[in-house]
Every structure is written in C-alpha cells, then in structure tokens.
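Work Package 3 (structural annotation) set out to generate three-dimensional models for the target panel prioritized at the project kickoff. During this period the team completed the workflow that converts sequence records into discrete structure tokens, so that structures can be stored uniformly alongside our sequence database. As a representative example, we reproduce one entry of 385 residues exactly as it appears in the project archive.
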Amino acid sequence: MFIVSSLLTGCWDSAELNKLAFVTALGFDKAGDDIVLTAQVLNPRAIAAQKPINEAPVIVYTEKGKSAIEIIRRMSTRTPRRLKGTHMQSIIFGEEFAENGISEVVDFLLRHYQTSPDLYFAIAQGTTASNVLTNLSKLENIPSAEINSALEISSKVWAATKSTKLLELADLMSGNEKCPVIPGINISKEPPAKSMDDMKTAIDDPINFDKNGVIKKDRLVGWLNEDESKGYNYINGNVQNTVGYVDSKETGRVTMFSRITKKTTKIIFSDNKPSVAVNINMSGTIENISSGFDITKQENLNILEKLSEEKIKKLCEKSIAKAKDLKCDIFGFGNEIHISNPEYWRTVESTWNDSGFIDLPVTITVKFKIVGTDSIGKSILSEEK
C-alpha cells in the first residue's frame, strides 16, 4: 500500500490553466543601466470569443530591472495570472540593447527550464523591441506567430533571409570560428497599431524583415544589406531556393527560380598560410522573360548561365568585403581551418577575426545550370522565322 500510494501523489507543482498567462514573445531594450523587458501575453478573452470583439489578441506588459528573471517575477505584481514561457516563440532585441551585449539574455534562456530550443531571434533595426511587440499584424492574430512564420517561410524561398535559433546562437557565441548573424526586423508604422480597427487603415503589414545583424562576441557590430545577405547565404549554403534575375541589352530581364545543388569549401595551405576556395553549384528554371530573347537555343542559355554566375559571384564578394570590414568571420572559414589544421588554428584563434580573417584570400567559383524553362519554351514576343 505504501509503495502504490507513492506513485499516486500527482504533480506537486501543477497549475490550473485559468491561473496561467502564456508568454509568446519577449523583447529586450536598454534604459541606462537597466533592462526594459516587454512580454507579449496571449489574451484568452479575445482568442476564446465566439464573436469578433475589438480587443487585441495579445496583452503587452513592460517592466524594468537589472536581470530578466527579476523583471519577470516583478511583473507578477501587475498580472492576474502567473507568466508561463512554455509557448514562447520569439526573442526580439532592441538595436541599442544588442549593441551593448546579448550574452546575459542568451545565458538566461539556456538555463530557464520553460524555454524551447526552437526560439527564433531577431533584432529590431532602428527601433525598440517594445515597438515591434506592440504592433499588430494583418494576417496573424498573434504578432510573434507572424514573426516566426515570416522567418521560416522567407528562409526557404528568399536568399537574403536566414533564421537563427537558440542553440545555434549560443554555440556560435561560445567560439571564435564563426560570428552569428541574426535577422533584422523593422516596423513601417509608428505609433504601433493597438487595435484591429487601427490595422484596417494600414496598407501593408507593418512588420517586415530587412538586413541581417552581425554579432561579434555578443555585440551587434553592423548590418548586412540585402545583396550582402544573399552573398552570405550563398557562401554558407543556406539557400534552399530563391528567385533572381539577370538583365542585359542582349537578353533583357530574365527571371529564374534557382537553388543550390552543391556547395564545397576547401582550405589550401601554401607556405603555412591558408586560403579558401568556395565552389557553388546551382541549377535554375526560367520563370519570366521581358523580351523576345530566344531561350530555345543552347548558346543563348549559355549566355544566361554566364550572367547568373557573374552576378552570384559579385554578391558573394560583396558579402566577404563587408564581413572583413566588420572584422567578423560570418562564413565559418575559421572552423574549416580548425578542422583542416588544428596546430595552425591554435596560433591564430585568439586574433582570428581581427587579423587572420581579414588577410585570408578567398576565391569564389560559381557554376549555374539552367535545367528547364517551366511550362513554355519561347517567349510570346519571339519572332517566328
């Protein structure tokens, strides 16, 4: 009887749903020496309502303090329910906060038992995390769901975007082999929309992704623009598929759907000095032609392939130049050298980003193959002969 009764004690730390408030996103901003934490919490009355009501689906709480856990506990004095982080989806850093260091927050998230390793991160570009989290979106009831969905989808279909999750971010911050890159997020509508009626007057969704923030150690040191972000993702092999175009007097504008089929990085040592050779193989299909350029001829397809190779190579070179300017190896070349020659890596590890990476020769080779023209062959503007 005693043995059986010990198995029927139930959950000692259980809590009723009607006493919990589920946090969907946290935002971190700076105010002097204090942290300003913004918590986006589900509004159960708006979500459970059978009929539309003029209430936001989330409630936002803001509190100030010295550490994240202290602030969250202090918020309990203002909320009728206990804050729960098991459904948290996004972490937003204000730009000023990111410039002053994010390691304390990442450490807190790793230690806290309620957080998920699938958390997405973003940096509020030119604004605060609070402004981002107090904006509503047009397609999703919950702004954090909008952020997550946009990040996940754009990472798959647009070469300039790369999502970053908790464990990946923590792993990159703990070493010198590769600097983390976190997506930038901005808002096109200020002050933020606070009701669904307010959102109806907005032409576009106010929340959008633009640029990518580069983190050195734990601080934001600069931004990659769209072209530089594309180059970064091509070199890292992050592009699942994307759309791009080539444009010349001979071909007009030709838009192609493309993807990386193979990417290799090779470390070459000469006189005990490394260099890097990056080879990118891509395939694509023609999606749109703005002129009568005849794509049924192989020699014309060769021209398009050559133009595509040159354009992608330039994007990669722009990204490398920007990374060297920021003194941040965002491509993981240091990690490749570490694997290839551990003894050499030990001599340059401590100064890699500040000197070794800057002087590293990098050669980019791109091979682009057109494998189809989609549903039709010739352009409708082609002249029959």
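Residues 2-224 form one domain.
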